[in-house]
Specification:
binds malonyl-coenzyme A; binds adenosine monophosphate; alpha/beta; nine-stranded mixed beta sheet; 15 helices; single chain
């Protein structure tokens, strides 16, 4: 039987070579990690999870959590990672929409998650940051030699939820080949080999930390230093032993604040990669002058995996996201007519290739709306391709805030604020922020005679929205600026409050 993604991972695995080195000093060899993935796959099977069933996972970062992802791939289950910041209210929606057979959370969350997962037909097991938990207890007695479920290139490997500009989050369906083809392309494009040691400080519930970082490492037979979270001192201490790092721009901004960052500390490093949000040209330039390394910026999306990358050899141009990856077609079209534009003209970025997802889970209309009739995915990003072929992202047509690499859709935050007593209406915008790139900021109009302050609104949002979606500031105004069509002019608000965080 063949399992499209896992067969490739197994073939690339270099036996007793290290795969993961944890912050606690434990080393997982490929053999040990694959053996545990077999035991977990058996445990999942014993729990009644069948190929095509969803396994929703909201756990802290650990080697065992990555191995659980591998176990799901082997067992044919669809892996559904969830941000650890999501509140119970948010989880309830995901469980209702995805109907997972199994939900895995940390032990402290078990009881509360059970109350919302059970009505949706899921069983709940646990996995903690230290690798303990009921799932691992079940796996202990299972055999290593699990017979992998047969999965073809087009079968689903994962569903990752992305927020929507209108309404609720959509589950992006990613196939075995979406993940495999993209990881193989990136491995070769970035020259990743078994000699590489990656600093992995990203969360593992998103494309960046889960697929780009982990699948590329696996398919190169390389190894990673798995850090629980971003910590600049820890990263600087690891650099002399590592060769690569992948991060969001906030990583690089924060590293630049650390006096230990210099050419010596970074001399063993081969490659620094940035993505998920725009890297300011000034960050690229400053990093180069401090370390001698030109950060390689690439561009991706949950729905498409990675689309473009600056070259490994050749010039990495600050403020660009490089060339379309081999096998990926990127074009720029007129957003109004869909006509393809020529070099240097700005329009909608559209993408086609084996990297592009299969559609949104149980949302055929939303899927159809985001593809052109000739099969290109409409990214919602505005950009241009210059005369040399480099892609530039110049803005977004989607109403989206990207804060520290996390996406926040204003509509969702506005929906929560507008429900509060005393609020007449609100507009949520992204305001330039020196650390997070953009900061979620709410502009609120109160009802006449309502007594509301910033603290009251933030307090009310506490249990409704994940922390990173909550506004960093609330501004009260009499009216929102509107155009002649009555639409709120968010560009006017963004301009007006552009200095709000200038001294943060
Ligand atoms: C944490 N907070 C954030 C935040 N992260 N607020 C806004 N935006 C964020 N990104 C909250 C915390 O809960 C905390 O709240 C306060 O802000 C300050 O926290 P911190 O200690 O400064 O944050 P930290 O834990 O250091 O996290 C910051 C970060 C992290 C940038 C390291 O957010 C991160 O790892 N981001 C990476 C996201 C990512 O992987 N994106 C990839 C998406 S895939 P308080 O007030 O309670 O203290 C994708 C496709 C592609 O986009 O192309 O890759
Ligand atoms: P997500 O939905 O979390 O996958 O976020 C995808 C979005 O992140 C893209 O549509 C872009 O808007 C943005 N993005 C990713 N990489 C970059 C980059 N290098 N520069 C600018 N924006 C980026």
């Amino acid at each position: 039987m063949s399992n499209h993604l896992f067969d490739a991972i197994r073939t690339a695995a270099p036996g007793d070579a290290p795969f993961i080195r944890t912050a606690e000093g434990r080393t997982w060899t490929y053999n040990n990690a694959l053996a545990l993935s077999g035991r977990i796959a058996s445990a999942i099977d014993t729990l009644g999870v069948r190929p095509g069933d969803r396994v929703a996972v909201q756990v802290d970062k650990s080697a065992e959590a990555l191995i659980l992802y591998l176990a799901c791939v082997r067992s044919g289950a669809i892996y559904l990672p969830l941000n650890t910041a999501y509140t119970l209210a948010e989880l309830d929606y995901f469980f209702g929409n995805a109907e997972p057979r199994l939900v895995v959370v940390s032990s402290v969350m078990r009881e509360s998650v059970e109350t919302i997962a059970r009505p949706h037909g899921a069983v709940v097991e646990t996995l903690n940051a230290d690798g303990t938990g009921s799932l691992l207890d079940l796996a202990k007695d299972e055999r290593d030699d699990f017979v992998d479920a047969s999965r073809s290139a087009d079968d689903l490997a994962a569903i990752l939820y992305t927020s929507g500009t209108t309404g609720r989050s959509k589950g992006a369906m990613l196939t075995h080949d979406n993940l495999l083809s993209n990881a193989l392309t990136l491995r070769d494009y970035w020259r990743v080999t078994a000699d590489d040691r990656l600093i992995h400080a990203l969360p593992i519930f998103h494309t960046h930390g889960l697929f780009v970082a982990t699948n590329v490492t696996l398919l190169a037979g390389a190894s990673m230093f798995l850090l629980p979270k971003f910590d600049p001192d820890e990263i600087l201490s690891l650099m002399p032993k590592a060769t690569m790092m992948m991060g969001v721009p906030t990583f690089y901004v924060r590293l630049l604040h650390n006096p230990r960052l210099n050419r010596d500390t970074a001399s063993n490093m081969r490659l620094f990669i940035s993505g998920s949000a725009p890297l300011l040209a000034e960050t690229h330039i400053e990093f180069k002058s401090r370390t001698g390394h030109a950060i390689l910026e690439r561009y991706g999306m949950t729905e498409t995996n990675m689309n473009t990358s600056n070259p490994y050899e050749g010039e990495r141009i600050a403020g660009t996201v490089g060339f379309p990856l081999p096998g990926v077609t990127v074009r720029v079209t007129d957003p109004a007519t869909g006509t393809e534009l020529t070099a240097e003209e700005t329009g909608m970025i559209e993408v086609k290739g084996p990297n592009v997802f299969k559609g949104y889970w149980r949302m055929p209309e939303k899927t159809a709306a985001e593809f052109t009739s000739d099969g290109f995915f409409i990214s919602g990003d505005l950009g241009k391709i210059d005369g040399q072929g480099y892609v530039h992202i110049v803005g977004r047509s989607k109403d989206l805030v990207i804060s520290g690499g996390y996406n926040i859709y204003p509509k969702e935050v506005e929906g929560e604020i507008d429900q509060l007593d005393g609020v007449a209406e609100s507009a949520v915008i992204g305001v330039q922020h020196p650390d997070f790139g953009e900061a979620v900021t709410a502009i609120v109009v109160c009802k006449p005679d309502a007594v509301l302050d910033e603290k009251a609104i933030l307090g009310a949002l506490q249990d409704r929205l994940a922390r990173y979606k909550q506004p960093k500031r609330i501004i009260f105004v009499e009216d929102l600026p509107r155009n002649t069509m009555g639409k709120v002019q968010k560009n006017v608000l963004r301009q007006k409050y552009s200095d709000l965080y200038a001294t943060t």
